[in-house]
What does this fold into?
Amino acid sequence: MTRRKVILDTDPGVGIPGTDADDPLALMLALADPRVELIGVTTVFGNCPPDLGARGAAAVLRAAGRRDVPVAVGMARPLSGRLPAQLVDAYAGARGAPGRIPLPELGEAGRHAVDFLIDTVRANPGEVTVVAIGPQTNLAMALLKAPDLAELIAEIVFMGGALGLDQQYGRGNITPVAECNMWFDPHAADIVFGSGVDLTMVSLDVTNPNKGVVLTDTLLRSVDRGASRLAPLLLDICATYMESPMFDWADHAGCVLYDPLAVAVAADRSIADFEAMPLGVETRGELTIGQTVPVRREEPNVQVCVDVDGSRVVEDILRTILSA
It folds into this structure.
């Protein structure tokens, strides 16, 4: 079996009240899937500050017995330099919030995530898939700093965007038209969309309850804490999310697996259907900034995931994580 070398670029709020469960579950899947060779984790602002995200990633890696996987702390702000106001407030709460999951302290700072991306891709030309499941600021900075990277990255698979293909969920989740990873740094996303790298988009149009992409309460109750080394952490992360105020407005009983679906697609494209589209990201409109939009291009630049058998995929994701 040929294993795909993957760098996971993520914003994992592990055990932090008010953050989604999907980032750490995506990391668990990347560690557990035998088709994936996880060669690094880079963190970016989003669900939490990137230094807290790195500690969360380290907690998952330790639970999996994988301290060999390097973690690099990345960009703490979007390219504009202005952190969205709601994140400023959320980060203040995240640093002071007691969590049920202890986060390890990190040692001396190593390479910045941007430099880690550049160095690792250059050392493995044409072999590295970057799975980006947070704002795309690290990727954009790497492409700006090292333009040759665009020809060296095998593929970028990202969770983000919304095209309205699903009338209920395929719109915005932070504004009426924008998905949060795009909205948090639309200028970075626009750079990635225009980079020429092979892109695969896993958007809100498929990562939603209508597609069955939910780790349901029923499935979670079926998990024995002693089933595997990752089972206790998986259950604690999901419980933290489902007990938080963020879950109060959810119209589904469980955790939507936005980000794990992107990892699953990177590991096996046959689980989904795709359509090539010419897309960009709105960077200027007062009401539409961050919206994923059709653009005039000579050729389509993004393979868009348009359908998936979510229920089957979720069961496969859970089974794979528990096999680790």
